[in-house]
Amino acid sequence: MSDHSPGDHPAGDNSQDDDAAGRAEATPEIWTGRATNRVQWLLAPAGAACLALGIEIAVRSHWTANVPALLMSVIGCIAAGLLMLYGTLAFVHVAVRVDRECLEVRCGHIGLPRRRILLAHVVDADFAPRVTPRQWGGWGYRWRPEKGTAVVVRRGEGMVLVLGDGHKFTVTVDNAETAVRIIRSRLARLT
After folding, report:
1. Interatomic CA distance for residues 153 and 94, integer angstroms
2. Residue of higher predicted confidence among 37 and 54
3. Is residue 178 a contact partner of residue 185, using CB atoms and an 8 Å limit?
4. Closest CA to 95 of 104, 87, 86, 82
5. Phi and psi dihedrals of 159, rounded to 5?
6. Are residues 156 and 130 in contact, defined by beta-carbon separation less than 8 angstroms?
7. What is the average pLDDT score of the chain?
8. pTM tops 0.85
9. From the CB of residue 146, how many other CB atoms can be counted at a distance below 10 Å?
10. What is the rounded CA–CA span in Å between residue 149 and residue 172?
11. Which long-range contacts (CB under 8 A, 24 or more apart) does 97-101 make?
């Protein structure tokens, strides 16, 4: 009887298999990553409270005097509440997927906003060790003329894609260094 289980091979027998497996692990067919910001959930109760306040004002108020001010209060509270709830659902996390053809970014539980970038339109990819909401003016889907576009859901590592039209796209995602390595290897194959 052998000391090895059916899947095991002596060290000398599988060196070529290990090299092939290492190359396959280095560039998987599909890479997925995610970043989460649980603090964003703190906005949900505030959004629900604003929404409830707007409804309460609309229901309990006497609509006989000062209608424009009352209408602005109701609309303002409801709009603020809906925006906070949408912001929570849309930007509590981001999911990134890289395959042979493109990079896709989906935000939040709704999956919107969504951005799909063909790798044929990418010139380079860089690892950003520290991306902060402060650099971009807050959380969410951001645009700054000097920096480009970004999806920022938390502070931390991210990746920066340099696009063929000169624009840049930044996204915060865990294990961004691996994503950059995979994108660069795919770009090398495209050229």
Report:
1. 7
2. 54
3. no
4. 104
5. -130, 150
6. yes
7. 84
8. no
9. 5
10. 12
11. 97/30, 97/31, 97/32, 98/30, 98/31, 98/32, 98/179, 98/182, 98/183, 98/186, 99/29, 99/30, 99/31, 100/29, 100/186
